Amino acid sequence: MRLIDDGNSIIPAVTVKKHDKAKAMLFTYTMGEAYMTIADHYFMLKALLQNTLGMSTRVQLSGSSSVTPFFYETSNDRAVLLLMSWDDYKSTTVTVTLDFLKGKSVKDLRKDRSLVTANSDGTLTVTLDQNESKLFLIGETASPSVGIDATKTSTYLIPSGRSVPITVNYDTIGNADSEITIELRQTSSNRVFAKSTKKVTGQGSTVIDLNVSTFSVSDVDYKSTSSNKQYYYLASITKASTQSRLSVLVEFLYPSLSTDAESTSLPSKLTANQASSVKMSWNYLPSFRFNSYRGLVVIYKSSKTAAVDATHNAKVDAMANLLKSIGYQQTTNMSPWDSMKNEEGPWYFIGFDDVPTYDGLKTLSAEFLTRRVKTLILPGVSVLNAEEVSGINAWLNAEDSYNVLITTERVEALSNVFGVKTSAAGALSGNSITITNATSPVLSYGDKKSITLSKSASGNAWSSVDRASALGTIGNTPVLIASRFGLGSTFAFNFDVTSLSADANVQKIMRGLDEYMTQSPFLYRLRVEALCGSNVVGFGDETVRSPYSLKYRPGSAEISITPSAGCDQPVYKAYLYPYYGEYAAMSLAQFSSDTVVNVETAGTHHCCTWYLFLLFAWCFFLP
User: Fold this and answer.
1) Tens digit of pLDDT for each residue in 187-244?
2) Could you tell me the superkingdom of the organism this chain comes from (predicted)?
3) Are strands 432-435 and 469-474 parallel, antiparallel or unpaired?
4) Which domain holds residue 236?
5) Is there a single domain that holds both residue 456 and residue 590?
6) pLDDT band with cut points at 50, 70 and 90 for residue 552
7) Of the candidates 430, 467, 482, the residue with the CA atom closest to the CA atom of residue 451
8) pLDDT greater than 50 at residue 305
9) Neighbours of 518 (CB within 10 A)
């Protein structure tokens, strides 16, 4: 093996010397990955170690040159096998051939010992994501298994009388009449707070609804996690030798006492048109820090749009300048995202429709967007093909995504996504935005009544909203349009904001939008309704914010209710829901309860009926 240097001189790359009982090998160059691809590295070592030195291995790999196996035999004819992918950019599939596997069971240790095969033929085919490793246990007695899927099961619980979905993976090993049992238990206690069962056959995944009992202050044992009570879900399956546990935070939302020792915080009588106050308190509100870090922003540069709009490339540059004005930096590769999760950002990246990404993917492919992008900006993009529209749709519907799509002007192919009607507006005129929704966090900076631009607005605009909310108007044209789509959020300036990138008021809007993109998973609305019989006679709501960490932080909010009619024996309903969510029609993780709360104050005993309807979804919406 030889190398050729810059002067065309031939230099030995590797020198091998035989000895009586050994061989020595000298490398005259580095084999680091900075100089060789993973595949070259792999085949070079294989040629040297196996073919030249004659070393052999019990584990044979095929189908991939970027996977390293670690095999170790333990006692009782068992072993562990670790497979590690070195590919930084894409998934890889490898087939392991190993005589030790024949006739033995293989279990995935990182999935609660879920059974891969009960009787191996000596081969194991595994798909690994980029830089992923998988650990397998070989030879353990095969028995039915069940594991709680922590990626699809919420670890935050508010007991409210409504069923909670628990996702489990299972394998019955062919046993008939297998039954899975899910329980909510408390550490250091034999008490079962909730229990549910489901019959299953074969192998697969299923959702089991666990009916969790409601909160009662008279239950001295049923306290929150923040009150030093530890809870966990426990899953078991018929004839299994092992169980699966998943720790869960249990917290409560409840009416608190008034400062007046003679009354509770729930008014027992309401007078028409007279404001009453209800104070709500909580031990803890869920924080989404793990999914709400400031993610990579991609500005999309479309050659198809540039072919019909000569100003498009300039609009891309202007949008970049607008991001820079609020502190963003440009990155030309993914290294800041890969190594730091963008915590030291914020960063933006310019993606192209005619140039593949670093890993060979298209910028608007669902795979690239879902893997890397939190916010996608379309500056004046007017042409999208069906594949690009499909990728954006899939990205906004990605589970646990909280992704945000922003456009400056009308994109007809995405009218449904932005919640607007497809028709185009007439020519925009005027430089004043009349604010129609001043409560939006997007408008945290600047005037709450009107925004004056440095010059008249222009651009290709939609004529009207459909299900979206317009935060303002220019003349009769809605602008600053917010909506939600799937599990993501959308925002349309609905005018050419790039031509105003240096405008101080536009920069204020962008700053508010940017903060909302990163903070909105922490925002909730707390709504309390007063009912006389079945009729809602008054309501009030308040924006509440969860902490920016997973720390327990008790809090409270004073809700003012002005009833339209009087009522002597009102009952109350409460809703906690994502900011700008539809409190009465949430589609995910709904909770509700009918709870009698006995509240004792100093010297006086009161009993009031408290109906707690808690509607909470693991997503956020732009207002």
Assistant:
1) 988 899 999 999 999 888 999 999 887 666 567 788 888 778 899 999 999 887 778 8
2) Eukaryota
3) antiparallel
4) 145-250
5) no
6) low
7) 430
8) yes
9) 18
- Residue 349: which CATH number? 3.40.50.880
Q: How far is CA 591 from CA 198, 270, 473, in A?
A: 21, 27, 37
> What's residue 295's pLDDT?
64
Residues 361 and 398 in one domain: yes
What is the Cβ-side half-sphere exposure of residue 55, based on CA atoms within 13 angstroms?
13
Tell me the pTM: 0.52
Q: How far apart are CA 83 and CA 98, in angstroms?
A: 13
Residue 623 CB coordination number (10 Å): 23
Q: Are residues 575 and 608 in the same domain?
A: yes
The three-class DSSP label of residue 286 is coil
pLDDT in tens, 91-145: 899 999 999 999 898 988 887 777 788 889 999 999 998 888 999 999 987 788 8
If one compares 521 and 381, the residue with the highest pLDDT of the two is: 381
Q: Which residue has the tokens 């939190």?
A: 374
Q: Do 206 and 234 share a domain, yes or no?
A: yes
Query: pLDDT at residue 388 above 60?
Result: yes
* pLDDT computed for residue 21 by the predictor: 84
Quick one: average pLDDT of 473-487? 88
Cis amide bond preceding 346, omega within 30: yes
Assign 413 to helix, strand or coil: helix
CB-based contacts of 607: which residues, under 8 Å, 6+ apart? 596, 598, 599
List the alpha helices (DSSP H) in 452-601.
504-519
Contact 611, 591 (CB under 8 A): no
Structural domain contains residue 622: no
Supply the CATH number for residue 210's domain: 2.60.40.2550
130 assigned to some structural domain: no
DSSP annotation of 79? E
Q: Give the long-range contacts of residues 188-196, CB within 8 A, separation 24 or more.
A: 188/230, 189/221, 191/221, 193/159, 193/222, 193/231, 194/164, 196/166
pLDDT at 291 over 70: no
Q: How far is CA 337 from CA 34, 513, 554, in A?
A: 19, 21, 34
